[in-house]
Amino acid sequence: MLVVVLIGLLLIVITLGLGYWSYVLGKRNSTNLVGAIIPAVYFIVRALLAVMMQGSTRELITSLIGSLIFSLIYYGLFVWGKHRANKAKA
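Above: the chain sequence. Below: its structure as tokens.
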């Protein structure tokens, strides 16, 4: 049980870290390609893990939709950081 909790906490830290990193990259006014890398890689890795788990179709679709939502959040954080960087320059 403790192992499951620790893995969950590790995943939460990684997820929050990626979100913060996306925001910081946007705030540094990086190119849009850089902002798309984290969400795209996150989605691909989660999709591969979902396929490897070989669950039912419903579980696969749920996992893919969840991954897509997190990818959109990461890209949104990047765009928000970029907007704030451009707003600070003006």
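Residues 18-89 form one domain.
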